[in-house]
Amino acid sequence: MYKDKKRRLHIGIQVGFAIFVALLIIGALIFVTQGREMPVLNPQGTIAHQERDLILITTGLGMLVVIPVFIMLFVIAWRYRASNKKAKYQPHFDSHRGLEAVWWGVPILVIIVLAVITVISTHALDPYKPLDSKVKPVSVQVIAMNWKWLFIYPEQNIATVNYLNIPKETPINFTITSDAPMNAFWIPALAGQVYAMAGMSTKLHVMADGVGTYSGVSSNISGDGFADMRFNVHSMNESDFALWAKEAGTSANQLSVAEYERLSMPSRDTQKTEYVLVDKNLYNRAIMKYMYPSGEMSHPMSEAKQSDMEMVH
Amino acid sequence: VLADIQQFLFGRLTLSDFVHEPIMAGAGFAMVGALFVALIALTYFKKWKWLWKNWITSLDPKKIGLMYIIIAVIMLLRGGADALLLRSQQALNGSTELLNADHYQQIFSAHGTIMIFFVAMGFIFGLFNLIIPSMIGARDVAFPFLNSVSFWLFAAGMILINAPLIVGEFSTAGWLAYPPLSGLEYNPGVGVDYWIWSLQIAGIGSLLSGINFFVTIIKMRAPGMKMMMMPIFVWSVLGSVFLIMFAFPILTATLGMLSLDRLMGMHFFTSGSGGNPMLYVNLIWAWGHPEVYILALPAFGIFSEVVATFSRKALFGYKSMVWALIAITILSYTVWLHHFFTMGAGADVNTFFGIMTMIIAIPTGVKVFNWIFTMYRGQVTFTTPMLWFMGFITTFTIGGLTGVLMSVPAADFQFHNSLFLVAHFHNMIIGGVVFGIFAGVTYWWPKFAGFKLNERLGKYAFWFWITGFIVAFTPLYILGFMGATRRLDSYDPSLGWEGLFVVAGVGVVLIGIGIAFQLLQVAYSIITRDQNRVGNDPWGARTLEWSTTSPPKEYNFAVIPEVTSKDQFWEDKKKHHVASPGYSGIWVPKNSGLGPLIGLFSLLFGIGAIWHIGWAMVVGLLGVVIVLIIRLTSDDTEEKITAAEVAKRESKKGAV
C-alpha cells in the first residue's frame, strides 16, 4: 500500500514537471512571437490570401489523420503497458482485414480530396497566370544581381534599386531573371516565390489589397552578400504612385548599358536608388548575356536576332 | 623553374592555404591534436598490431559495422558543433562578431553534407553490417572484400570533408551546391572541389555497399526463409539498397559533370554554350529524394522490430507493411520535382508531382497505424528504444503534416526555402531517421557488446533530445510564417526575429546535453559492464540474430538455422527448439589490407583532383586499379575453421 502511494507521488511529480516545462516552452514562444509580423498568415495581397486559405484547408484535412494518430498512440500505449494486468494480452492479434482497410481507406480518401484541391489550386494560383482585374496592369522587370535587386518599370521609363513601389489594387506583372547565381523572388505578404535564374525569364503576378509596406527577400543562397538581398515593397494609392513615378523620371541617375554594367558588379549594402531608364532593352540584354559562351557577347542586344529572343520565352 | 616545380608537386596548394580564422583553426587543431593523442596512445599501449589485425584489415561485417558507427558518432559531434555555431550567429545577429558571411556559409554547407553523408549514412551502413547477415541467418555478406572497400572509401570521403578545417576552405554553395553558384565563375576556389570529391568517393562506396547488401539479402538467406518470411527490417533494407543502386549512379554522374565543368571548363550546367543549371537541379534531386528514403526506410524497419519486441507481440499487418514499403520505394523515384515547384514549371507539371508526393503519405500513414496497433493487446514495456519509438511517431507525424502542406504546389510557394522547410526536413531526418538509429543502436547494443546500455542515462538522453528538438525547431516553423529564409547570416533587427533564434539556440544546447548523456551512457555502461552481462536474448526478441551468442562469433552461426515461419526465433523458443550440434567446417574470409589501401589511393586521387596535382591523380587512380588486379587475381582469400575448432569455440558459450 505504502509503496503504491510513493510510486504515485513519483509519477505525479514527473507529470507535474513535464507540464511545467511545456508551459515554459509555450510561454517563451508566445513572448518572443507576440507583436511580430507574420506575412504568410496575415497576407496583404490577392494571391497570398488564397495561398493562406489553401494552407489552412490543407492543415485541417491533415488533422483528420494526425489527431486520431496522437490519441491512439498515447491511449493504446498507456492502456497496454506491461504493468496493467487488467488489459487483454493477445500476442497473435497481428492482422485484421477490416481495421487495415480502414487505415488504407481513410488516408486514400483524404488524399483524393487533397488531390482535387491541388489540381484546382495549382492552376488557379499558377504564378504565370495574369490576374483578373479591370485596372490596367503595371509591368515590372526584376533582375537579381550580386547582391541587390534591380526593378525596371518599362512603361514608366524608370528603374529602382532595392525598393519597389506599386499601386494598390492593381495587377503587377513581374518578369524575373538573374544576372548572378540563382535567387528566388519572394514577397511573402503578396505572393509565394519564384526562382530568378540567369538566362531565363520567369513570371509572377501579384496584387496588393491596400496601402502598406511589406518586406521582400531572395530566398535562395547566392553567395557572400546573400543576406543583403532584401527590399521593401511600398503599396500606395494610384495617384501617389503616378506622382512618385513622375518624380523618379526626373532623377539625375541615368540607367544606361554602362551604368548597368557598373551596377551589376558585386557589391553589398547597396543604397536605394532611382534611375531614369535610358536603354529599354536592359532586361533582355541581361538574359541574352547568358546565351553565349562567356566573353563572346560582343554585340549589344539591339543587334540580336528575333529568333534568339524566342528562346527566352 | 622553381615555380614550375612547386606547381608540379603541389598544384594550387600554397602555405597560405593553411592559414585559418580562429574558430576554424581551433577546430582543426583540436582534430589534429585528438588524432595525435590517439597515435601516441596506440604506440604506448602497443596496440598497433591489434588495430591492424582486428580492425583495419578485418573483413568481418560486425567489425566494419562498428567502425562505420564510430565515424558516424565523431561526425555527429562535428555536425552538431556546426549547428551550434549557426544558431549562435543568428541569435547574436551581428551584436557580437562571430562569423563572417563566407565562414557562415561554409559551416551550413558542411553541416548539411556531413549530417546526411557521414552521420545518417554512416549509422545506417553500420547497422546494415552489424545486423543484416545474422538477421537472415547468414554468416557474412555476399562480398566481404567489397564491403571493406566500401568502408574505406567512406572513410576517405570523411577525411576529405574535414580537411578544409586544416587546409583550404569548404564549399559555400549549400549542401547540394546548385550551379551557377557552385560553378567556376562564382566559386573558383577549392571549396566546391572538396565537396565534390568527398561525396564522389564516399558515394561510390555507398553504391558498392548497396549492391553488396542487395545480393546478400537476395541470395544468402537461411534455407527456408521465403521473401514473405523476412523480418521487416530486412525488407526495409532491401528497399533502401534498391534505391541506392538506382539513385547513387545519378549522383556519381551529376558530380562527374559538375567536376568536368570545373576542371575542364565544360558547360553541362553553365548557361553559356547551351548548358543549363536547371538540369543539375533536376539530376541532384533525382538522387536526393530517393536519398531521403534510403535513410528513412531502415529507420522504419528498426521501429518495426522494436515495437514488436517491446509489445511482446507480432508486428501488426506484416503484409500491409511489406507492400507499403514497396510502394514507398517505387514512389520515391517519382516526386523529385517537389523540391523546386518554384522553378516556374507549368501548373500541370507541378500538379503531377504534388499529387505523387501526397500519395506517398498513404503507405506511410498505413505504417504508422500498423505500428500503433502492434501495441494494441500487447504488453508494452517502455525501455529506451520504445521511448525513441514514441518520440518518433509524435515528431514524424507532425513532419508528415508539414510535408503534405508543402506537397501542395501553391502552398509550397510560401514555404519553399524558408525556415519552415528547414524545420520540416529536420522533423523527418531527426524525428524519423536519427531517432530510429538511436532506437536501433540501443536495441542491438547488447547483441554486439554482450551487455546492456544503462537505461537511466539513456532515458535522460531521450528527454533532453525530445525537449531540445521541440524547442529548437518550433521557432523555425514560426519564423517560416514570418518570411524568414534559410541560410541568412544576418537580418534586419527591426524584424524582431532574435528572440525566436535565441529559443532555437537553447534547443540546440538541450540536444547537445542529450548527446552528452548518450556519450556518458556508453562510457558508464562499458565501465560497469560486468554487472550488466546478458545472454543471447536479453529483450525476449523475435528474430534470428538473437539466437546466436552475444557477441556473435566471427561466423555468426555454428549451424545455419532452418526457417519455416516469420519470427522464427520466437516460434523456436516456444517449442524449446535446440539446434543439433552437428558441426562442420566453416570458410571465413582472410583479413586483407587491400581495402584500406584502395581507400588510401582514392584519398590521394581526391587530393590531386581538388588541388590540381596531376601526379597525385595518376598515382591514385593507377594505385586503385593495380590493387584491384592484385586482389582479383588472388585465390588465397579464405581460410577454414575446422569442425573440431568450431566445436571447441561453441563449447565456450558465454565466454567473451
How many helical elements of chain B? Answer: 20
Strand content of chain A: 15-25%
Alpha-beta content class of chain A:
alpha+beta
Largest interface summary:
A-B, 102 and 104 residues
> What is the distance, rounded to the nearest whole angstrom, between the alpha carbons of the first and last residues of chain B?
62 Å
Oligomer: heterodimer
Low-confidence segments of chain A: 298-313
Largest sheet of chain B, in brief, is: 2 strands, antiparallel
Strand order of the largest sheet of chain B: 1-2
From N to C, what is the helix and strand string of chain B? HHHHHHHHHHHHHHHHHEHHEH
Radius of gyration of chain B using CA atoms only: 25 Å
Give the N-to-C terminal Cα separation of chain A: 81 Å
Let me know the largest β-sheet of chain A: 7 strands, mixed
Structural class, from secondary structure content of chain B?
mainly alpha
Which bin fits the share of residues in helices of chain A? 40-55%
Number-wise, the strands of chain A total: 12
Helix proportion range of chain B = 55-70%
User: Rounded to an integer, what's the Rg of chain A over CA atoms?
Assistant: 28 Å
Describe the protein's architecture and organization:
The complex is a heterodimer of chains A (313) and B (656). Chain A is an alpha+beta fold. Chain A is built from seven helices and twelve strands. Chain A has helices spanning 2-33, 46-79, 97-124, 238-248, 257-263, 282-288, 306-312; strands at 138-145, 148-153, 158-161, 163-167, 172-178, 183-187, 191-196, 202-206, 212-218, 230-236, 254-255, 273-277. In chain A, the strands form two sheets. In chain A, strands 8-5-1-2-3-12-11 form a seven-stranded mixed beta sheet. In chain A, helix 5 links the parallel strand 11 and strand 12 (273-277). In chain A, helix 2 runs antiparallel to helix 3 (97-124). Chain B is mainly α. Chain B is 67% helix and 1% strand. Chain B has helices at residues 2-10, 22-44, 48-56, 61-92, 101-135, 144-162, 191-219, 232-264, 277-310, 318-331, 347-375, 384-407, 409-415, 419-449, 455-481, 498-527, 568-574, 594-611, 614-632, 643-651, and strands at 586-589, 638-641. Chain B has a two-stranded antiparallel sheet. The model of chain B has no long low-confidence stretch (mean pLDDT 94). At the A-B interface, helix 1, helix 2, helix 3, strand 7 and strand 9 of A face helix 5, helix 10, helix 11, helix 12 and helix 13 of B.
